[in-house]
Amino acid sequence: xxxxxxxxxxxxxxxxxxxxxxxxxxxxxxxxxxxxxxxxxxxxxxxxxxxxxxxxxxxxxxxxxxxxxxxxxxxxxxxxxxxxxxxxxxxxxxxxxxxxxxxxxxxxxxxxxxxxxxxxxxxxxxxxxxxxxxxxxxxxxxxxxxxxxxxxxxxxxxxxxxxxxxxxxxxxxxxxxxxxxxxxxxxxxxxxxxxxxxxxxxxxxxxxxxxxxxxxxxxxxxxxxxxxxxxxxxxxxxxxxxxxxxxxxxxxxxxxxxxxxxxxxxxxxxxxxxxxxxxxxxxxxxxxx
Length: 289
What we know:
This protein is an all-alpha fold.
């Protein structure tokens, strides 16, 4: 892995992890489903527009259309929709930690459901990940965490795991940015329907909302996705996924820095264990790629 790929991987992990803090700021002044549907409308139109300017086509293969619809619904609408709703009562750091377990869940599901062999290092990583989350949850339960919000985060990360497994390899064939843009528009439609069904849209205009919303649309929403696909094309999906091990650390650090969320010794220990668990699982899977 070359230096440029390493630097871009670090930037991607930082961008992805920061989304939880910006989302927490957004839902303080804007209803979550309405905010997310509007974010995907803006990011999706930008993505499709840039893709068209680069000469990419809307003529996708059947596998690409399947990936677009599945990811648009499960990742953009279900996963992020539930996370945005949850972060009205759940701290950004905890939401980031739960979401960061996705590589662990993918590794477990690939072993348990798809028959993928998991080496001892990978098994140790899964056990460490579960132990780390247990330590964190034990610390947070004593502080009165909202279990309803936690449940939404858990359902969301399961939906993201399912999407990842369902469309593995389906995005091959080019037009990556077009697929990303269309996925966002699919998510926008699904979330707009959810907004009409479950939410009364509200917005309290403020400078923090403007900054956080703009940042979320352009950085985690669009730029991080472009960097991700650049990494996948340069070093492969398995090696690129290794950078996810940084997400718990970055997610907690950004929330503590910008939102002044508390961070106790048990939180730090749990984050360290989860981080090592994710890294172990990814290295184990990488050695087979």
